[in-house]
Amino acid sequence: MLITELNRECLLHLFSFLDKDGRRSLSLTCRGLREVFLDPALWPLLRFHAPCELQRNNYVLGPALRHLSVCWHSSRVKVCNIEDWAKTPFQKDICRKHEGVVSAFLARVCKRCPNLLSLTLSGCGHIEDQDVVLVLQSCRRLRSLRLENCVRITDSLLHAVVAHGDSLAAVQVDFCRNVTQSGLQVVRAGRPGVRLSAERSAGMIPDGRPQDKPQPLRRALQKVLLFS
Question: What Rg do the C-alpha atoms of the chain give, in angstroms?
Fold first, then answer.
């Protein structure tokens, strides 16, 4: 029996054992297998390990998606975490190549994946409050929101959790340095049934304005005056 002679259910089961690249490669062999690849039922779970993976044509976003994870563990994450005003031209150039990728991807998720149940974003240093707020507003069944080391996330998102997180059961905002204790208290008061985790977040040094940070030349002059 040829693989193309199997029924749709068997083909979906076989595809489920392959990773995203394997599914796409197999789908390029014939029209019938391409149709199986494009079936939203094949894609209830998506995991990505770098923003560049979001731009590949090897997955399908659809109403069957339930669990989504974008976890970026790379040395470049450290560059993304630097405040924009403090980045060197070289660091800005690095970020410019990918800074809008995750935000654009989440906008697509909002339009195509209304049944999303869990969202995990780790090391996504360029996403902002509104990117995640749109997910809360569009995916009303979302039960788990996990954010880790997302430095642009602030208390504004926590207020949105109270306003739009009707189905949320768990919220995690670990190592998000611009989240404060007052923002966490808003969630505890407004959504007492939500399991809230915020490891280190409210105890980290938040972003400051350029004038709040001593510039290298100013710091050097201060040292000269201090020891002269």
Answer: 22
C-alpha 68/C-alpha 118 separation (Å) is 6
CB-based contact 161:188 (threshold 8 Å): no
Beta carbons within 8 Å of 213's beta carbon, 6+ residues apart: 86
Measured distance CA(157)–CA(132) in Å, rounded: 7
The label of the residue with tokens 């100013």 reads 218
Q: What is the pLDDT along the chain (228 residues), one digit of tens a residue?
A: 788 888 999 999 999 999 999 999 999 999 999 999 999 999 999 999 988 899 999 999 999 999 999 998 877 678 888 888 888 898 888 888 888 999 999 999 999 999 999 999 999 999 999 999 999 999 999 999 999 999 999 999 999 999 999 999 999 999 999 999 999 999 999 999 999 999 888 877 777 766 555 555 555 545 444 444
Residue that the structure tokens 């009707």 belong to = 166
Chain centroid, CA 37 distance in Å: 24
Which tokens is 153 given?
Answer: 């996330």
Gap between the Cα atoms of 200 and 86, Å rounded: 23
> What Å distances lie between residue 209 and 6, 22, 66, 206, 213, CA to CA?
62, 47, 39, 10, 7
In the three-class reduction of DSSP (H, G, I as helix; E, B as strand; rest coil), residue 148 is classed as strand
AA letter at 13? H
Predicted TM-score (pTM) above 0.90: no
